[in-house]
Structure of ABC transporter permease:
Amino acid sequence: MYLALRELRHHRLRSLLIGGIVTLIAFMVFMLIGLTRGLAHDNAALLIETPATHFVTTRDAGGVFTRSFLTPDTVTRLQAVAGPDATPLAQSFATLSRGDRQLSGVLMGVQPGSFMNPAAQQGQPLSAGSTGAVVDESLREDGVTLGDTLTLRPGGETLKVIGFTRAARLNHQPVVFVTLQHWQTLNPRLHRTVNTVALNTEGAAARAAQLAGVTVHTRAAALQELPGYREEQGSLIMIQVFLIVVAAFVLAVFFYVLTLQKTPQFGLLKAIGASTRTLAGSLVAQMMVLSILAVTVAALVTLGAAALLPAGLPFTLTVPTVLGAAALLVAVAAFSSLLSLGSIARVDPLIAIGAST
């Protein structure tokens, strides 16, 4: 360690340049992970952050909400066995207009007072008999404000915005919550059916699973059945894997070239008695110190940059995610530096000194 720190201090400019390159690679990894996780969250924020633990659909729907149509009798039986731990949900895709501007959204019917009734960050929540709507806060970027009137196309029915809620996006679209009774009035062709019944306890899920004609899905399973979610996640995960592999390859080549450049120096140190083990330990320690400092700087810069990104940009990066990615990058850097140890062991002091002179 002493030899490593002494070399870092002696070659300050070179150390800064190496650290800068590792910082840029780590910054790129953190930003792309934030963007890919942001896209995933934007696709299914409603299901990811819902208090529900399970969802019930018809057996033939395969877990896809839009293919499931639970009759009022089935909903009554589910609520009879699960009590207040069960609440029906109905959803439909909608086109809304605000003035001359058209907006897309998911119209969702919920029971006021249930655990799926969204909390209003601004305004008021839905209440029994309400004909207004609580909408996702992302609609603010489209100019929607509290008290605005949204018009459903092409029917022309109107919804007054009475509140804004957060983390209510589905299929990359904002969710517009209305009472279940109002939703059924707006969708008469569905004959008072609902798409799913949400459950929020394991006991309720076990009792609901005993009923005929329905299937109980965990929240994770329902998430995977969301149309397009699995395919999008596959692409995003592949992007993250390739990103880590490319970063590992770049760091390995970078550290290897640096080691080769120091061959005469290693030969001289071996000639005056330094062992291969001492030189290898010095190299690994030097790379680890540089990598940890560079990754720490990149993590702090990324968290600062995230606060400056536009509100509408899907970007999700939590501190645990940053810590996990940082640990992975440091491990990759350590492994990359180990690949250079073979060249140190093969250094012949006489040849290396001769090459330097």
